[in-house]
Design brief:
transmembrane helix; hydrolase; single chain; Acid_Pase_AS; binds 2-acetamido-2-deoxy-beta-D-glucopyranose; 41% helix
Length: 548
Amino acid sequence: MQGDHDGRHQQRISEPKSAHYYTPDSDVAYPLIYAPITQRKLSNVRTRLRHAFLLLLALLALLVSGYSIVTHRDVRANDPLRHVRSARPVDSDNYDSGASFAPPAIPKLWAVYAPYSSVEVYEPPPEDCRVTQVNILQRHGARYPTFGQSTRIAKALSRLQSADSFLDERLHFVTNYQYGLGVNNLIPFGESQSHESGRKSFARYSKLTNWDNLPFVRASGSDRVVRSALKWIEGFATSSGDVLQPPLALILPQVIGGYNNTLEDKSCPNLGHPLGQVQEWQSRYAQPIADRLNAVARGIPNNLTAEDAEALIELCTMETLAVEEYSPFCELFSKEEFEGFEYSVDLDKFYFTGHGSQLGPVEGVGYVNELLARLINQPVQDRTQTNTTLDSNPETFPLGRGIYADFSHDNLIVAVVSAMGLFKNHRMGDTSNTGVLDPEKLDRSRAWFLSRIVPFSGRMVVERMECGIPLNDDAVGYDDSTGMKERQRRRAERNDSVYVRILMNDAVQGLEFCEGVDGDGLCPLHAFVHSQAYARENGQGDWERCFE
Ligand SMILES: *[C@@H]1O[C@H](CO)[C@@H](O)[C@H](O)[C@H]1NC(C)=O
Ligand SMILES: *[C@@H]1O[C@H](CO)[C@@H](O)[C@H](O)[C@H]1NC(C)=O
Ligand SMILES: *[C@@H]1O[C@H](CO)[C@@H](O)[C@H](O)[C@H]1NC(C)=O
Ligand SMILES: *[C@@H]1O[C@H](CO)[C@@H](O)[C@H](O)[C@H]1NC(C)=O
């Protein structure tokens, strides 16, 4: 695993800040050179001469900066050291708030291609509670386009680049543009995201571990997932001053149909990938983009299609994260068009392994049953994707650990949250739970935003805690406008002492499906187990339907 990727990472960290951060192009030197002149009174010939000279300088500066932008853009795609050249601040907030090299509002509209950002500020457990176990299910960090995406991007690019010229100057860079992204693998930004997550896990949960109780870490077998797990471990270990070095205990091979793998989403052979809804929506939001581009591309032999337009947006998202600079492709799209793109990806996953799919959620059942086993400290009960050989062996499925961290893919995590009952697409605040996403009309009040569920490096954290710890009686005269003290009092009166709380990317989930959940998002563990009937009953027939 210690390939040149890791070597590059080391160098990159020690490299000073460079000009690769997102800076709007208008911030180049030109306005600064020009500004003093306007404040002068141009009364005599000398001043006028100087004015002309300064103007010439300004023009030169413009030319040079324009030239360097152009050459920079041409060169960077083929520059093997381009990642080394872009150092990042060590400040972790950089990763919690997304990518600093793009305008803040835009990457949040990239659905599963959004970089991780905290959806809410992490709320520590209530004072009367003490966390006793955490289960982290995390997506790999940011990556290059997959093979399929690369093919679609290449097709769209070749169509666009076959134009003789462009009437829109935002497209002029396309003529000399060279595509240079890798395929499938984790990118340096993605490594840093995972490292940062490990660091943060240590900061939050280090009390749950010691030499005899190290985090138990598993990964599904693809390179980017394994590397993400290793980077998380690195972040965790470094934070502990290299005292606690959890091993990557288990890599579950990705042999489709040949290996029982609870961290892989390809376990249900009859699960189709319905494309109708996505095509329907693409014809509405992406066809107008294609038409607009076709209209300004002179002499284009094959018009771009709606799918091509979407591929160019994907290129924008992934080039931005790989090069760590706002891609010029992104400048081709408006905020509304990015919203259309986001909805397209949200629809795709909703109808693939999400609530909109009959058989998708069952792919998450094996993981949920493993989660329940850890939470209640009992052997795994499952007849779906679990490997009984592994899960009955304490070496490969230990109980009683403080921290479990599992690394996987977006489609699997979407299946898991759907199997559990999270993010049911009711309109916000409406509990009828009948909502499916409308492929003909963008639904702004949906609960289903993948940028908040599985962005790159996105994570679900299930905290188990013991509550009812007696508190100092400082409640007299205490302003309890949020009801916090009252909830503590009720927990203390209850017979339950063990609770679970679920955070998606730091946002506490309401757990409407869990009986007895309170305003802190805490649900008694036994009620939570009870609520997971779909998993405990092995998909209630859906698993069998996967093979019929
Ligand atoms: C289960 O895991 C064992 C141990 O890794 C492996 O030998 C076996 O092939 C696995 N079986 C399936 C069906 O995944
Ligand atoms: C290509 O798109 C342009 C602009 O939308 C349109 O005028 C033209 O008819 C299209 N050509 C073909 C062959 O579809
Ligand atoms: C793998 O999964 C299948 C289907 O659920 C099951 O029949 C089989 O026993 C599992 N194999 C192992 C080793 O757990
Ligand atoms: C708590 O347990 C006791 C004894 O088992 C029972 O009588 C009581 O009703 C329980 N209280 C609640 C709130 O469930």
